[in-house]
Design goal:
The protein is an all-alpha fold and about 280 residues long. The chain has one domain. It is globular and about 45 Å long.
Length: about 280
């Protein structure tokens, strides 16, 4: 249930973002508020549960780079892509990352090759093609941004999982969120300031993104991961893009065509194969 709650919470994030854009919120401001509030909420949750937030100097430097550079790039690409192409397409393009992570691990020697991995790659690429090909009013820059977000997230995962074995996921998230918030603050100042004179409606969606789709989603995922393990968590996390697709179709009338639906199923099947049959050295 914890992993399901996390997946649904993450799944609503692009929907909340689209609604925030409708209230006049810019991408930079949205991400600054998202990471700043999530940093505070996760810190409070960890303190209430008696967790130690300390990390070594080396870990702090590494986490600062992860959040300040890695998460900064991934979130910027992802949330900007929502300005160009429909939410369902963005959600499914992003969810090619489990396959990319597996093949990145293979290239780096973390895992060994298998027929199931080759099949998952073929399914993911075929699904990706079907998802993006029939988009009405398709904008290439939107697709490239969404794909860039998936690739950037892949690098983020490959680097972080190998370096932060001795640091809890929630604690790592706390410092990553804080460094990402700092990066967006500095970037906003560099661009001449950040405008936050929004109405009540905008703040509702921003708080939901920050608290529900970031802080709660991340915390419940790591708690659930400890109880059921990575494979089960990966399978249950497939609910995330499904939630995005269903919510967008209801709220924005953004429906998948038959070809896109088949493509989306292929992407989810590829992620399932990776989770179920991934061989480790």
């Amino acid at each position: 249930m914890l992993v399901v709650i996390s997946a649904v919470s993450f799944g609503f994030m692009p929907v909340f973002a689209r609604l925030a854009y409708g209230e006049g919120v810019g991408v930079l401001e949205l991400l600054l508020v998202r990471f700043a509030l999530a940093f505070l909420v996760i810190g409070v949750l960890l303190r209430l549960t008696g967790r130690n937030l300390s990390a070594s100097k080396g870990q702090l430097l590494f986490l600062s780079a992860l959040g300040g550079i890695g998460y900064f790039l991934q979130a910027t690409l992802y949330f900007n892509s929502l300005l160009y192409i429909p939410v369902p397409a963005v959600a499914l393009i992003l969810y090619t990352y489990p396959v990319f992570v597996t093949f990145g691990s293979l290239a780096l020697g973390f895992e060994k090759a298998s027929a199931s991995l080759a099949l998952s790659l073929l399914l993911a690429l075929a699904g990706l093609y079907l998802v993006v090909t029939p988009i009405h009013g398709f904008v290439l820059i939107g697709f490239l941004m969404a794909l860039g977000a998936a690739v950037t997230y892949t690098v983020y995962i490959l680097v972080s999982t190998r370096v932060l074995k001795k640091l809890g996921g929630e604690v790592a998230s706390f410092w990553v969120m804080g460094s990402a918030a700092l990066s967006f603050t500095l970037y906003g100042l560099f661009k001449g300031g950040v405008r936050m004179a929004w109405g009540y409606g905008a703040w509702v969606w921003l708080i939901l993104i920050s608290v529900v789709s970031t802080a709660v989603a991340a915390t419940t995922f790591f708690q659930g991961l400890k109880l059921v393990g990575p494979s089960t968590s990966s399978i249950l996390s497939l609910i995330e893009p499904i939630t995005s697709v269903i919510a967008a179709s209801i709220l924005f009338d953004e429906f998948l065509s038959v070809y896109q639906l088949i493509g989306g199923l292929l992407v989810l099947l590829a992620a399932s194969i990776v989770a179920l049959f991934k061989p480790s050295k």
